[in-house]
């Protein structure tokens, strides 16, 4: 899951984040050790972003099947969720269960806030690990223990304008980077302000997907040091940066991109590198006549079909919960293929299990097929709590390389330097843990 | 019971509130700034290390911190004079005897202050859009090439300043207008009889009489502008290439986004020290100016 979208804020004169930080800092210091407070006989379920609205429609079915349980749904906005989860942990007021983006899982596992689920899965007739896409399942396993059950998946791939590709003489989407580069070159015309692809310079998911296609891991020595000096990462970064230098993508952020759906529809971009929710966006925003002109394709790799990033959200049970059995019952309900199919129909969130894909609206949807194919090949991001910060740093350095401030080699070295600094505390903690053993 | 003693019970509630909600948190944050409090420390307090001035030392060696401080000072140095000039200009126009529909304009010019920054940021992002923006359209009529306002690191901060000045000048305008209306009309009358023109009256009557108000407005504005946060947060998220990253924005990212509360507290205290030094110097200057 990425933190896109909505923004909050208060007027300049009234905003005093310094004061808020001070107050919060104290609250953390004072409450850090307190235990969870008494709760009523309800199951508190936190959702993040739009999922809350869709899941509200699924809950009546669960409450009918389990008359003794009442679910209290709390919808957190995406931008506030991370902060709220950590504050809730510090204040001992975590919910019973929650949706959790799989880049945030390592943090809450590091906090020891989540209950392990191995025994429950072993005894479950509904949740069968073999039915899940293996890389997605793996993002929930830390040191051999399972802390979450995948709820929906997210991977980035290519949306493309088949009509524009055909006009340029290509009858199929790209299979490898060389072919992709040829198409980008043929479809870009900076003088007419058309570009092969839109890659917002402030989103890290695109470069990260290319980097995950490489054989080398992004961090080395068990997540102690950055591994961005590897040949593989440099290859991915060079491909990414070249796309801008060759003017096959405009060097703009998603703030300036404004309405990419409209521009894609107008043919300003022939490719759009994005995630599953955009199937719904394009169906809704582009006119009916244009619906046959766009399609989706798995990411091309350096030499043949490539991997993608294993994103998405899981369902987790908090260790402090007093209703862990009930929370598990809800997870099982939401993991049923027929419920996941309804969830997809409501919101467009793609299910993490193969049997959910075998029926419903997903089975015959041509636009979803590329996702189904890529999901078998996705790779997880490094399971360290600092990952999101590292990915942000990676994108900042990449943006500087696009602006010409770094060469690819310099950018890789700078990135390793910054990442090693971010991971300094982690190294200290890991070394101490090992010394104690 | 002496009057002195009797005063304490009356002060106690205010002291208690201030102590619990201001003094204690500040002291707590100061203590935090000497530690490396982060996610690992939140998980297990044994992972908390006392680092003395380590956070401060590291910040002073971090290019991003200096860049953020530089952006903040840029914003203050350009934004405050612009903002006060705009406020003063608007206040003078509203105070002019020739002004018509005064109540309407006063409300209209004050409106940006009370609108939500998020809502107006959306409008401004459209105005500043490179391709479809009104501002570039107007510049195009003058033959100026389109400016990539929010995407070019050189132009992003000027765009933020423009936005902040527009958003905030109405507040100072109201204060200055009150100050203008408090100037006795006899002074102007006397100056006019002595043959002073409009400009000389502005320079020798209006501005000296307005000086205390202007001083207060300047200090409040400087203190407020050092806390630049909401504008880049909603307009650019600190970008492009971190060119609108302010000191407070850096603190927010460190503390709330990455949960490094130790170094975030250190940023807060460094910013506080800077703001304190600048406003104290201004206060001293104004005092000396009014004594002279």
Automatic annotation (TrEMBL), chain A:
Where is the protein localized? Answer: Periplasm
Q: Which Gene3D superfamilies does the UniProt entry name for this protein?
A: Periplasmic binding protein-like II (3.40.190.10)
Q: Does the keyword Nucleotide-binding apply?
A: no
Q: Which GO terms describe its cellular component?
A: periplasmic space
Q: Which InterPro entries match?
A: Bact_solute-bd_prot1 (IPR050490), SBP (IPR006059)
List keywords of the entry alphabetically.
Answer: Signal, Transport
Q: Does the keyword Ribonucleoprotein apply?
A: no
User: Which family, according to the similarity comment?
Assistant: Belongs to the bacterial solute-binding protein 1 family.
Write down what this protein is called. Carbohydrate ABC transporter substrate-binding protein (CUT1 family)
Q: Which organism is it from?
A: Fulvimonas soli
From TrEMBL, chain B:
**What keywords does the record list, in alphabetical order?**
Cell membrane, Membrane, Transmembrane, Transmembrane helix, Transport
Bilayer topology term: Multi-pass membrane protein
GO biological process terms on file: transmembrane transport
Question: Where is this chain's protein located in or outside the cell?
Answer: Cell membrane
Any one cellular-component term (Gene Ontology): plasma membrane
Q: Does the keyword Transport apply?
A: yes
Task: Write down the InterPro entries for this protein, in alphabetical order.
Answer: ABC_transporter_permease, MetI-like, MetI-like_sf
Which PROSITE patterns would you find in this protein's record?
A: ABC_TM1 (PS50928)
PANTHER family from the entry?
A: ABC TRANSPORTER PERMEASE PROTEIN, INNER MEMBRANE ABC TRANSPORTER PERMEASE PROTEIN YCJO
Family from the record: Belongs to the binding-protein-dependent transport system permease family.
Q: What is this protein called?
A: Carbohydrate ABC transporter membrane protein 1 (CUT1 family)
- Species source reads Fulvimonas soli
């Amino acid at each position: 899951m990425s933190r896109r979208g909505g923004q909050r804020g208060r007027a300049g004169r009234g905003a005093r984040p310094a004061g808020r930080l001070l107050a919060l800092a104290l609250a953390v210091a004072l409450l850090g050790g307190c235990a969870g407070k008494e709760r009523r006989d309800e199951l508190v379920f936190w959702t993040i972003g739009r999922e809350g609205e869709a899941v509200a429609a699924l809950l009546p079915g669960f409450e009918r099947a389990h008359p003794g349980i009442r679910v209290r749904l709390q919808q957190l906005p995406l931008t506030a969720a991370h902060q709220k989860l950590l504050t809730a942990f510090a204040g001992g007021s975590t919910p019973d269960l929650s949706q959790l983006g799989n880049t945030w899982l390592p943090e809450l596992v590091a906090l020891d806030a989540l209950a392990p689920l191995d025994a429950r899965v072993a005894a479950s007739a509904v949740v069968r690990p073999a039915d899940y896409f293996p890389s997605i399942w793996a993002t929930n396993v830390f040191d051999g223990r399972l802390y979450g059950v995948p709820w929906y998946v997210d991977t980035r791939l290519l949306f493309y304008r088949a009509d524009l590709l055909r006009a340029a003489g290509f009858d199929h989407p790209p299979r490898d980077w060389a072919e992709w580069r040829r198409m980008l070159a043929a479809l870009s015309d900076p003088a007419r302000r058309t570009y092969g692809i839109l890659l917002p310079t402030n989103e890290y998911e695109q470069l990260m997907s290319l980097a995950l296609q490489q054989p080398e891991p992004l961090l080395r020595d068990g997540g102690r040091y950055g591994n961005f000096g590897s040949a593989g990462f440099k290859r991915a970064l060079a491909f990414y940066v070249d796309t801008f230098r060759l003017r096959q993508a405009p060097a703009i952020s998603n703030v300036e991109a404004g309405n990419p759906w409209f521009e894609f529809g107008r043919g300003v971009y022939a490719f759009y590198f994005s995630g599953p929710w955009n199937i719904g966006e394009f169906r809704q925003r582009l006119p009916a006549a244009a619906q046959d002109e766009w399609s989706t394709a798995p990411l091309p790799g350096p030499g043949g079909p490539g991997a993608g990033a294993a994103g998405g959200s899981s369902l987790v049970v908090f260790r402090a919960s007093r209703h862990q059995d009930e929370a598990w019952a809800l997870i099982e309900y939401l993991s049923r293929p027929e419920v996941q199919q309804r969830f997809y129909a409501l919101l467009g969130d793609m299910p993490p299990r193969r049997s959910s894909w075998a029926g419903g609206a997903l089975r015959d949807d041509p636009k979803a097929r590329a996702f189904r194919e890529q999901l078998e090949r996705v790779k997880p991001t490094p399971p360290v709590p600092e990952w999101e910060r590292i990915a942000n740093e990676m994108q900042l350095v990449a943006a500087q390389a696009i602006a010409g401030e770094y060469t690819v080699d310099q950018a890789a070295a700078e990135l390793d330097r910054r990442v090693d600094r971010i991971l300094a505390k982690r190294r200290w903690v890991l070394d101490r843990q090992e010394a104690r053993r | 019971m002496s009057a002195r003693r009797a005063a304490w019970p009356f002060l106690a509630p205010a002291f208690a509130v201030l102590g619990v909600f201001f003094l204690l948190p500040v002291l707590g944050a100061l203590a935090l700034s000497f530690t490396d409090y982060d996610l690992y420390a939140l998980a297990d307090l044994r992972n908390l290390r006392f680092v003395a001035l380590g956070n401060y030392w590291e910040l002073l060696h971090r290019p991003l911190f200096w860049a953020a401080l530089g952006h903040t000072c840029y914003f203050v140095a350009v934004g405050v004079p612009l903002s006060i000039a705009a406020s003063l200009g608007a206040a003078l126009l509203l105070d002019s005897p020739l002004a018509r529909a005064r109540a309407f304009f006063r409300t209209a010019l004050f409106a940006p202050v009370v609108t939500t920054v998020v809502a107006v940021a959306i409008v401004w992002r459209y105005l500043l859009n490179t391709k479809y923006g009104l501002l570039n359209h107007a510049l195009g009529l003058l033959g100026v090439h389109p400016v990539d306002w929010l995407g070019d690191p050189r132009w992003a901060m000027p765009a933020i300043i423009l936005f902040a000045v527009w958003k905030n000048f109405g507040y100072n305008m109201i204060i200055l207008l009150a100050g203008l209306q408090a100037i006795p009309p006899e002074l102007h009358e006397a100056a006019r009889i002595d043959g002073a023109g409009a400009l000389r009256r502005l320079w020798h009557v209006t501005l000296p009489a307005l000086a205390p108000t202007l001083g207060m407005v300047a200090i409040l504005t400087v203190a407020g502008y050092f806390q630049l946060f909401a504008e880049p947060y909603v307009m650019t998220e600190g970008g492009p290439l971190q060119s609108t990253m302010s000191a407070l924005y850096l603190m927010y990212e460190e503390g709330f986004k990455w949960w490094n509360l130790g170094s975030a507290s250190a940023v807060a205290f460094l910013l506080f020290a800077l703001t304190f030094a600048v406003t104290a110097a201004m206060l001293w200057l104004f005092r000396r100016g009014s004594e002279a």
